[in-house]
Amino acid sequence: MIEQRGPAQGPAQGPAHGRGTGHGTGHGLRPGATAQASSGRAGLTVQRTVDYAQAPWSKQHLAPDAFTALLSQASGGEQPGKDFSVPYRDLFETLNASPQTIAINEQAGPSAGSRALFALAPEAVGGTLQIAPPGANASAEELRKFAATITHEMQHALDSVEERYSSKEKPQNVRQRKISTELRAFGREAAAALKLAMGDTYDRGKGTLTQILSSTPEGRLTPERNQLAREFHILDSYHRGKKPIRAAFAEQPQGLQIGIKSSLLLERLAGYLSQYKLVTPTPNSHEALEWLMKEENAEVLQKGLVEGVNLFHQHRPEKGE
């Protein structure tokens, strides 16, 4: 259940997310509605009231259809599905239907430079989605950036209600699970940025997806997310072709390969390996890739990166006619 509220009690702080990150979609509960959720004690049900008093922007604009209208207006009448697509609909609807509470808090904003942050609850199930809403006159470019970030953070929220942070994910340890959730969220973020830039489909007559990415203007897709999408597209091609993920990375990339030194995905992974103290001091991209490919981290490779690649494949724009 998504509950929108102010900072009645400070949320437990989850992992801080790096630059450009975004940790889902449908119709929110109506103002003043109540939802039932089990308290965890047999025979006892707790009534929770959805309070929009401290989340005015989210109340009006966060639901996917409302955000679609906002983005269409800001972009001068671009058509949903054709020119852009709000990518977090399925996440929002799943979270809204969950018995676990995901609070939305517009008062306790995320760290500087970020529009959203998911703070995991102490019990590792549920938590708070902290949002710094776009301004009243936000441009279409700003709204696209915000929606890609929200998609990333809602993927983290989904992982929390599905207990992907918990011991259910053994044999991964706690820190490995956090890396896996980041890798999955990167895949959703990359696909989200593409749908916001292109819509549900892209014109195959304009070339391959790689060629289209190279000509997509920065106002529709930031250079960072352009690169992230390109890397996940390459990983997706290797995975669908049943080639080893490791083969997608090369010191001197040729054709459809990712340069190890220049990889944004490996740069982000290195930062999280340092943050969660899995590798010290902060590793470089080569060391991050080496860590991911170790046998002891095989579950992270499969449940993190491979699942992230699958999420990218499932939610990216499709080839049009």
What's this, in brief?
By secondary structure, the chain is α/β, with parallel strands linked by helices. It has helices spanning 56-61, 64-74, 89-97, 140-161, 174-198, 209-214, 223-240, 264-275, 285-293, 298-315; strands at residues 2-5, 34-38, 45-49, 102-105, 116-120, 127-131, 201-202, 249-250, 258-259, 318-319.
Task: List key phrases describing it.
single chain; about 325 residues; alpha/beta; 4-stranded mixed sheet; 10 helices
Question: How would you describe the overall organization of this protein?
Answer:
- The chain is 42% helix and 11% strand.
- The chain is of the alpha/beta class.
- Strands 1-4-6-5 form a 4-stranded mixed sheet. Strands 2-3 form a two-stranded antiparallel sheet.
- Helix 5 packs across helix 7 (223-240).
- It is globular, with a radius of gyration of 19 Å.
- The protein starts with a strand and ends with a strand.
Oligomerization state:
single chain
Structural class: alpha/beta
Q: Overall pLDDT, averaged?
A: 85
Rg, Cα atoms, Å: 19 Å
Shape: globular
List the SSEs and their pairings:
Layout lengths: L1 E4 L28 E5 L6 E5 L6 H6 L2 H11 L14 H9 L4 E4 L10 E5 L6 E5 L8 H22 L12 H25 L2 E2 L6 H6 L8 H18 L8 E2 L7 E2 L4 H12 L9 H9 L4 H18 L2 E2 L2
Parallel strand pairs: 1-4, 4-6, 7-10, 8-9
Antiparallel strand pairs: 2-3, 5-6
